[in-house]
C-alpha cells in the first residue's frame, strides 16, 4: 500500500502527519500487513531528519499562498498554484498512491487537486475550530473528514465527518517526572512555568516576559522556549537584565526543545504560557493548566477561536494580545500559581478535553480505505 501525506508549512500541519504515519506502521505491524510506502508532497520538507527517520519520501512541488491582506505577491500566486498542480499530477501519477491524507494549508492544494483528478481517495484532517480554506474546499470531494474540535462540525458534510481530536506523536505523549529537575538543572522546591513560543517563537510574548522576568524569578523558575529565530536576541537581553540578579539561574532559555527535553519540561511544570496552535492538545494530554495568548485574528483567523473553545472546557485562561501587558500577565500568573485548587480543576478539565486516540483512529481509516483502493 502507498500512502501520500500532504499539508503545509507549519509544525501544526507536519507533526500530526508524523503521528499518523507512526500509527499506520504500528497497525500494519500488528496486523501483519506488508509495510506501507510513505510519501510527503509539499513545497518544503519542513524537517528532513524526521522524514528520514520515519521512512517518508519527500516529493517537492511548488505551492502558492493567497494572503488575506493586500500584497503584490497575490498577483503571482495563481502561477505558482498552477505550476504546482501540474507537477503534482505528473509526480502523483508516477507514484499512484492508494490513499491521500491531507492536513490542509496552502501547500496541500496541488496534491489534493492531483488526487481529485486521478480519483485517489482523500482523507482530510482539520486542526482548528474555524477551518482553513484548503480543507473547506477539499471536504467537498474528500472521502472522510476528521476534526479536532466539535465546533468545526457545522462547516463540513455531517455524513462523512467525525470529531477525533488532534493526532499526537507517541514520542511526546507522557511527561517525564523522574529526573526532570536534574535534567533541566532546576530546583524541585521552586514552582516552574513553561513558556512555549512555538517552532518560530512568539515575539510579543517574549517581549512581555522579559519586561517582568526579574519579578517572576523572585518566585518561580522559567523554562522559556524562545523559538530559533529569537533565541540570540532574547538570551542577550535576559543576560543584561539579570546581570546582578541572584536568581539568574532560575531562568532557562532554549531555542528549541527536542522530544526528550519537552517531556522533561512537561514533567516539571505547573503552568504553561503559549499561543493557541495545535500544541493545545499536547497541554491537554499532559493535564497542565495553561495561560493562552492567541495570535490576533488579523494575522491568524483560527487561534482566537481555538483559545476560547479550549477555555470553555475550563482548562485554560485566555489573554487576548490587545490586552497583553506586563502587569496583566504578571497578575494572572500569580493568581493561578497561588491557587493550587484552581490549577487542579484546570488540570482535570484539560485531561477530559484530550483525545489521545486521534492518530490511531485516523490511521485505521487510512488503512481501511487504502486496502479497498488496492483491490
Helix and strand pattern: EHEHEHEHEHEEHEHEHEHEHEHEHHH
Helix content: 40-55%
Q: What fraction of the residues are assigned to beta strands by DSSP?
A: 5-15%
Overall radius of gyration: 21 Å
CATH class of the largest domain: Alpha Beta
- What name does the CATH topology of the largest domain carry? Rossmann fold
**What structural category characterises the helix and strand content?**
alpha/beta
CATH architecture of the largest domain: 3-Layer(aba) Sandwich
Q: Residue ranges: pLDDT <50 for 5 or more in a row? A: none
Output the number of helix runs: 14
CATH-level-4 superfamily name of the largest domain:
Glycogen Phosphorylase B
Q: Largest sheet, order of strands side by side?
A: 3-2-1-4-5-6-7
On the 0-100 scale, what is the average pLDDT? Answer: 92
Give the beta-strand count: 13
Structure summarized in a few sentences:
The chain is of the alpha/beta class and 375 residues long. It has helices spanning 11-30, 48-53, 73-95, 109-117, 133-138, 180-183, 203-217, 231-241, 259-268, 280-286, 303-312, 326-337, 340-353, 358-374; strands spanning 2-6, 37-42, 56-60, 99-102, 122-126, 144-147, 161-163, 192-196, 221-225, 251-254, 271-274, 290-292, 316-318. It has two domains: 2-168 and 356-374, Glycogen Phosphorylase B (Rossmann fold); 174-353, Rossmann fold (3-Layer(aba) Sandwich).
Amino acid at each position: 500500500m502507498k500512502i501520500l501525506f500532504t499539508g503545509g508549512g507549519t509544525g501544526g500541519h507536519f507533526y500530526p502527519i508524523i503521528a499518523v504515519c507512526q500509527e499506520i506502521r504500528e497497525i500494519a505491524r500488528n496486523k501483519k500487513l506488508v509495510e506501507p510506502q510513505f510519501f510527503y508532497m509539499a513545497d518544503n520538507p519542513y524537517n528532513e531528519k524526521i522524514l528520514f527517520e520515519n521512512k517518508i519520501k519527500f516529493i517537492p512541488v511548488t505551492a502558492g499562498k493567497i494572503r488575506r491582506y493586500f500584497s503584490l505577491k497575490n498577483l503571482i500566486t495563481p502561477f505558482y498554484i498552477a505550476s504546482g498542480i501540474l507537477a503534482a499530477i505528473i509526480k502523483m501519477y508516477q507514484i499512484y498512491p492508494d490513499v491521500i491524507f491531507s492536513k490542509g494549508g496552502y501547500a496541500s492544494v496541488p496534491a489534493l487537486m492531483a488526487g481529485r483528478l486521478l480519483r485517489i481517495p482523500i482523507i482530510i484532517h482539520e486542526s482548528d475550530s474555524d477551518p482553513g480554506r484548503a480543507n473547506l474546499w477539499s471536504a467537498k470531494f474528500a472521502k472522510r473528514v476528521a476534526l479536532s474540535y466539535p465546533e468545526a462540525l457545522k462547516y463540513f458534510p455531517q455524513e462523512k465527518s467525525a470529531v477525533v481530536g488532534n493526532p499526537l506523536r507517541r514520542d511526546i505523549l507522557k511527561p517525564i517526572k523522574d529526573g526532570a529537575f536534574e535534567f533541566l538543572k532546576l530546583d524541585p522546591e521552586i514552582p516552574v512555568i513553561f513558556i512555549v513560543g512555538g517552532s518560530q517563537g512568539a515575539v510579543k510574548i517574549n517581549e512581555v516576559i522579559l519586561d517582568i522576568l526579574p519579578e517572576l524569578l523572585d518566585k518561580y523558575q522559567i523554562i522559556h522556549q524562545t523559538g530559533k529565530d529569537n533565541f540570540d536576541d532574547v538570551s542577550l537581553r535576559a543576560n543584561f537584565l539579570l546581570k546582578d540578579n541572584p536568581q539568574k539561574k532560575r531562568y532557562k532559555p532554549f531555542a528549541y526543545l527536542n522530544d526528550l527535553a519537552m517531556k522533561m519540561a512537561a514533567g516539571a511544570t505547573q503552568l504553561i504560557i503559549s499561543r493557541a496552535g495545535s500544541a493545545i492538545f499536547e497541554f491537554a494530554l499532559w493535564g497542565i493548566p495553561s495561560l493562552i495568548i492567541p495570535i490576533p485574528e488579523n494575522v491568524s483567523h483560527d487561534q482566537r477561536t481555538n483559545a476560547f473553545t479550549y477555555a470553555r472546557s475550563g482548562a485554560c485562561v485566555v489573554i487576548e494580545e490587545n490586552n497583553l501587558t506586563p502587569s496583566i500577565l504578571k497578575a494572572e500568573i500569580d493568581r493561578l500559581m497561588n491557587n493550587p485548587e484552581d490549577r487542579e480543576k484546570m488540570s482535570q478539565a484539560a485531561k477530559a478535553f484530550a483525545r489521545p486516540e486521534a492518530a490511531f483512529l485516523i490511521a485505521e481509516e487510512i488503512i481501511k480505505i487504502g486496502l479497498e483502493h488496492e483491490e
